[in-house]
Amino acid sequence: MTARNLPLLAALAAASIAAAVGGAAQAQPAQQQPPQTSAPDAPAPRQALRVCQDPNNLPFSNVKGEGIENRIAELFGRSLGLPVTYYSFPQRMAFIRNTLRYKLPGQDYPCDIVMGVPVGFDQGVSVTKPYYRSTYALVVNRGRGLDDVASVDDFLKLPPERLKRLRIGIYDRSPASDWLRKHDLVDQGVPYKMMSADPAQYPGEIIEKELAAGNIDAAIVWGPIAGYFAQRVKQPPLAVLPLASEPGVQFDYEMAMGVRYGEREWKQQIEGLITAKQADIQAILKEFGVPLLDTAGDRRN
Question: What single DSSP character describes residue 188?
Answer without folding.
Answer: G
